[in-house]
Amino acid sequence: MYFAMESLNLVDTFSEFKEFKNIETETLMQIVEEVFRGVLVKKFGSDENIDVIVNVDKGDFEIWRNRRIVEDGQVEDPNTQVAYSEAIKIEPDFEVGEDLSEEIKLKDFGRRDILAIRQNLVGKVQEYERASIYAKYKERIGEIVVCEVYQAWKKEVLLLDEEGVEVVLPKSEQIPGDFFRKGDTVKAVVLKVEMRNGIPNIVLSRVSPVFLEKLFEQEVPEIYDGLITIRNVVRQPGERAKMAVESYDDRIDPVGSCVGVKGSRIHSIIRELKNENIDVINYTPNTELYIMRALSPAKVLSVNIDEKNKKADVFMSPDQVSLAIGKGGYNIKLAGKLTGYEIEVYRDSDIDYEDVDLDEFKDEIDEWIIETLKSIGCDTAKSVLRLSREELEDRTDLEEETINQVLETLKAEFED
To answer: How far apart are CA 252 and CA 375, in angstroms?
Structure first.
C-alpha cells in the first residue's frame, strides 16, 4: 500500500484489503471514513459540518466542508462560517445566509496528515482483521479444521487455514509419530484461542479426546444426526483409545455403526491417528457391566464395587490379566478414566470353573433368546447371572417364565 503526498490511490488500497484481509466493503468504508474524520477533527477542530463520501468499488472518496456565508468581518468560527468576499470568489451568485459546500482535496492535507492517514488506515484494518479472526475461531473451539503446513519446527508447526490465517500445532499437541513437511495437509481440532499483545493465538490439537470424538462425528452419520451419543472418550495418543457410545433407538447398534462394515468407518480414523487402537464399547449405567466392557478385550469373571471410594476390584483368569493391563498399562488406565473408577486386577486362581459362552447353550436355550441377551451386552453365562430377574425383564422384554428358565439352565452349569 502506497500513499503519495499529492494523491491517495484508494483503488489499490481497497483491492489489497479486499483480497488479502477479507474485509467487507461496508466495513472498509466505515474504517476509511473513521480514519479521515480523525484527521479532519485535528485539522479543523470538528467534523460535524463535514461529509465524507467513500466509494470502495471505484476506489475514490470525496470530502465536503459545509459553511454558512456571513458578512465580511462577522466570521466567528472559520470552520463553520465563511466571509461573503471569500464565497463569491468561488461562485459570484452567492449571497449572505446561504450555505457553501467546498470540496477538500488531498493536496489540502500536509505531509504529516497524509502519513497519519496511512498509518491509521493500516492500523485500523489490522485491528479489525485480528478481532475478526479471534471472534471467528473463538466460536470454532472444538471443531476440526484442515490446514496446510507453512513452516515445521521442532517445538511447533505453523499452519495456514483456507483463508491464510496462521494457526499453531505445538509439539505437545502432536501424536507421537507425527511428521510434517511444508505443504502437507493437517487435520486437527481447535483447542484454544487467546489474544496475545493484540494478536490472536490459535492453538490446534491432535491429541485431545475431542479430536477423536469429532472424527467419529464426521465418519458416522448416526452420531452427527444425534441417533448415537458419545458418552465419554479417553486416549493415550498414538497408542490406545476407548470410547463409550449409546443409542436410544433399539434398532441401532451403536458399536456396529461406529465400526462400520468390515471396519470401514473406524479404519480411516485409525489411520488418521497413526494406528491408534480404538475400543468402542456400549455404555451402560450398570457400573459393574460398564467396567467389564471398559476392560475389553480382557474377559472379566467378577467385579466388586466400592462406590464410596470409587474403586473396583476386578477378578479374572490368570491368562486374561495381561490383556486387562495392556501394553504399557494403557488398557487398565484408560478403562479407569473411562468409568471414573480406580481399577485393581486380581488373578482368580482358586476357581474350579470357567465362564461359558452363551452359544454353548444353543441346545438348551432358543437362539433368538441368546441373541436378545447378547444385545444387552451379556455374551457369557456369568454376565447374565450377574443381573437380577428384574433387570433382565426390564432390559430384554423377555417374559418372566422365559427368564426363569434361562437362569435355571445357566445356574445348573456351575452347580456341583
So the answer is: 11
Of 235, 215, 216, residue with least CA distance to 173? 235
Q: In Å, how far are 76, 89, 201, 385, 400 from 408, measured between CA atoms?
A: 109, 115, 65, 10, 12
Are residues 32 and 121 in contact, defined by beta-carbon separation less than 8 angstroms? yes
Digit-coded pLDDT (tens) for 129-147: 888 899 999 999 999 999 9
How are the residues of the chain apportioned to helix, strand and coil, as percentages rounded to the nearest 5?
A: 40, 25, 30
Cell numbers of 20, please? 488479502
* Among 1, 6, 3, residue whose Cα is nearest residue 109: 6
Whether domain 10-135 has CATH 3.30.1480: the reply is yes
Record the pTM. 0.67
Neighbours of 389 (CB within 10 A): 12
User: Domain spans of the chain?
Assistant: 10-135, 140-205, 358-414
Q: Regarding beta strands 240-247 and 277-282, do their DSSP bridges make them parallel or antiparallel, or are they unpaired? A: parallel
Residue 395 burial (C-beta neighbours within 10 Å; 0-12, 13-18, 19+) = middle
The pLDDT, as a whole number, for residue 362 is 82
Q: Inter-axis angle of helices 330-339 and 318-325, to 10 degrees? A: 70
pLDDT, tens digit (0-9, with 9 covering 90-100), for 204-215: 999 999 999 999
Where b means 16+ CB within 10 Å and e means fewer, 46-62 reads ebebbebebebeeeebe
What is the C-alpha to C-alpha distance for residues 34 and 164, in angstroms, rounded to an integer? 27
Residues written for the chain: 416
Domain 140-205, CATH: 2.40.50.140
- The whole-angstrom separation of Cα 5 and Cα 277 is 66
3-state secondary structure of 240: strand
Cβ-based neighbours of 352, under 8 Å, separated by 6 or more:
none
- Domain pair 10-135 / 140-205, same fold: no
* CA–CA gap between residue 179 and residue 184 (Å, rounded): 10
